[in-house]
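Holo prediction — zinc ion.
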Amino acid sequence: MATQTSEITLLSTITCPDCGHAAAETMPTDACQWFYECKSCGTVMKPKPGDCCVYCSYGTVPCPPIQEGNSCCG
Ligand SMILES: [Zn+2]
C-alpha cells in the first residue's frame, strides 16, 4: 500500500521516560516542539539524537511534518 494519504494525526500520546506518565497532546502543525515538561514528575524531555521533536522521540505519533514526509527542523 504505497498510496499517499494526506490525513495527518494531530493527537499524540507522549510518554515520560522517567515516570512513565502518558499524556495525550495535540501537536502544532506549523512548528516543532523541542521541549515537553512531564505533567507528573516535571522532567523536561528533549528530542533524542536524530529526532526533530519530542513527539518523534516520545510520542505515539511522529510530528505532522514527518507524517507528510518532510523534515521539519533540518
Ligand atoms: Zn514524568
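READOUT: The mean pLDDT is 89.
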